[in-house]
Amino acid sequence: MVKQHLQKMGKGLVKPETFFKKVRKEIVQKNKRLNIFISIPKKFDVKTKGKLGGLPVSVKDCVCTKGLQSTAGSKILEGYVPPFDATVVKRIKKEGGVIIGKTAQDEFGFGTFSTNCAYGTPKNPIDPSRSAGGSSGGSAVAVASLSFPHISIAESTGGSISCPASFCGVYGITPTYGLVSRYGLIDYSNSLDKIGVMGKNAWDCALGLSVIAGKDGLDQTCVGETKNYTTFKRVKDKVVGVPKEYFSSAVSESVQKNVWDAIKFFESEGATIKKVSLPNTHLALPAYYIIAMTESSTNLAKLCGMRYGLSLPIEGSFNEYFSKVRTKGFGEEAKRRILLGTYMRMKGYRNKYYLKAMKIRTLVINDFKKAFKTCDVLAAPTMPFIAPKFSEIRKLTPTQVYAADVLTVAPNLAGIPMMNVPCGTHKGMPIGLHLMADHFQEEKILGFAGVKAWRR
Amino acid sequence: MIDVKKVAGVARLNLTKAETKKFSKEVKDILKMFSELDKVNVSGVEPSFHVIKTFNVVREDRVEKSLTNKEALANTEHKEKGFFKGPKSV
What we know:
With about 450 residues, chain A is an alpha/beta fold. Chain A contains 15 helices and eleven strands.
């Protein structure tokens, strides 16, 4: 649909004013019911030239947009209007993409169900009593519910693109760490954060990736090349690895069945199926959370009510003022992670936690590298279950919530590219297939995700 | 064992008694989950601070447009004569 829209826009067959008037009407209406956006610009900056000429693009709230409030879902950044664009936003605008709003998310990305958003919880459009997934919940709801052609810029640290894409039944690609510049991203965890794309199909995601990928000189960890990802490679004769650790009893039967059907479908398209093992998978969850919390507690230290975001009347000493602002501005999950992250960075604990987790990460990477010696992609379920009801989520302890990320943290920890592909339903709710490939092998994933006969 | 009240002070967070109690219980559970790693022998394993091997990613050193003073100060009410204004330090 994006492809046709761009062609029509290019030929002048769509009247931009009329089209974007409809876009505004729909997002305002749906936002009331589903809490998709934290901010919607007063005026759309409509352009029609370029690779994304006249295409509506929503952007996760943690990605800075010049002149448009960017809070990362947190009250401590309420009212923050960045005076600059993140590199990805700059590139989207340059190619004619039209920013239509900032999507709701868990505060700083801290969550699996988007229930930690300080501005209202986005709801699953298929069943609003269920979670949209997190942390890029608003982006997934936008892609799933908006009727016009559109892509969304999302971000993943430990599964924040794959999870909501799975729960809402949309496509979402998390690129290799370092393929896309993080300049202008409100950091969660520097060694884990990746900006990616959600869309209604693989081609839409590939188009978005083609625009945002590649180094820019402003992020020293960004080493990716700029190239066209929309020419899909064939699936025939490719090898699909199926890691046994991803089909444990923690994964519901309906999810396993649908994912296996998808894998068998690839076989019928000429791919070879190979069972593999990633023996260190069970260590990824603790290692991931240690790294994520440690790095985020450092990142959030700069938020203190002085230069931007929430501010209070200046009273008392530095420490008194900063503590007052931080206590008021951070939500419960942010505080929990700051406490743990700070603790794990204290004298005498760094080696026990952070350094150990970094070594575990090496083991997890090595598992993947070994598998990719014989496999082109790995296929697994994205989430262990369908989108849960909010009433079920309220009963969970923090450790139970963290455990929901069990299938997405390992590839995120290893920084390999991954993509959610909707592959079936249970009780009417979407089930996601997770495709993973070696570093910088996004094209291999897109080849599988883009198989034409896929949408049965 | 973790002293939540002390850590909160270091992290510049004021916690109520009820919050301290709740967080103390929760972080204990979470740290227990992390202790899974204690069983793993990682001697001889190099840490992966970066997942991709990168070495001195640099760009051409040239002057580019920076934020103006007004833009840099636009997001705070605490400013004076073109500077940020903070709480007293001494």
